[in-house]
């Protein structure tokens, strides 16, 4: 993996474990020369990820829609910041720049990004790895939703294998290194 896109929140998490995992994961990225592709903001979980890797001297590429430059406060210290016209262009560029996708805790935007990239994989538009980092069970209800949808026949059983979900960073590392 040369570049991994992280979808995550523009707000700060109340869970201190998220901050610890930010340091852990960005340390791993730096050690293995993996670039970060993310939403381009200087705030929230996004900003913490970027700051950590920037401070370590790693490559950080942001993709930010013009209309969010003030709201999400564009990060000024990145390797590269792409300013795009809208959210669709943002997701497309993040996809094009990335070799894989990691989902950190976040809100509706994070879920939107996850579901779009997952749907593209389901449709055969890509085969890039997708991993949910289920820190302290943050995504437990989402994972239960998938199980229920499979039981109800609305998601095929085999589509559950389009991504992994783990609370163990080492398991996710292994998945990305295949």
What's this entry about, in short?
43% of the residues lie in helices and 17% in strands. The protein has helices at residues 16-31, 44-56, 87-97, 108-122, 140-151, 169-177; strands at residues 3-7, 35-38, 60-65, 80-84, 100-103, 130-133, 164-166.
Comma- or semicolon-separated keywords:
178 residues; 6 helices
Q: What does the model show?
A:
The protein is an alpha/beta fold and 178 residues long. The chain has one domain: Rossmann fold (3-Layer(aba) Sandwich). It has six helices and seven strands; from the N terminus they run E-H-E-H-E-E-H-E-H-E-H-E-H. Helix content is 43%, strand content 17%. It has helices at 16-31, 44-56, 87-97, 108-122, 140-151, 169-177; strands at 3-7, 35-38, 60-65, 80-84, 100-103, 130-133, 164-166. It has a seven-stranded parallel sheet with strand order 4-3-2-1-5-6-7, with helices on both faces.
Topology:
Layout: E1 3-7, H1 16-31, E2 35-38, H2 44-56, E3 60-65, E4 80-84, H3 87-97, E5 100-103, H4 108-122, E6 130-133, H5 140-151, E7 164-166, H6 169-177
Helix pairs in contact: 1-2
């Amino acid at each position: 993996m040369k570049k991994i896109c992280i979808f995550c929140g523009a707000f700060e998490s109340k869970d201190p474990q998220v901050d610890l995992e930010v340091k852990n994961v960005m340390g791993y990225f730096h050690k293995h020369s993996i670039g970060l592709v993310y939403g381009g903001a200087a705030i929230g979980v996004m900003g913490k990820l970027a700051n950590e890797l920037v401070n370590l001297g790693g490559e950080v590429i942001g993709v930010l829609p013009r209309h969010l430059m003030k709201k999400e406060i564009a990060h000024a210290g990145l390797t590269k910041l792409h300013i795009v016209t809208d959210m669709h262009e943002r997701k497309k560029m993040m996809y094009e720049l990335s070799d894989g996708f990691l989902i950190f805790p976040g809100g509706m935007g994070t879920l939107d990004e996850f579901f779009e990239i997952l749907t593209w994989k389901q449709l055969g538009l890509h085969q890039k790895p997708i991993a949910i980092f289920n820190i302290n069970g943050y995504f437990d209800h989402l994972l239960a939703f998938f199980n229920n949808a499979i039981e109800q026949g609305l998601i095929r059983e085999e589509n559950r294998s389009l991504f992994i979900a783990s609370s163990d960073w080492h398991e996710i590392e292994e998945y990305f290194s295949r």
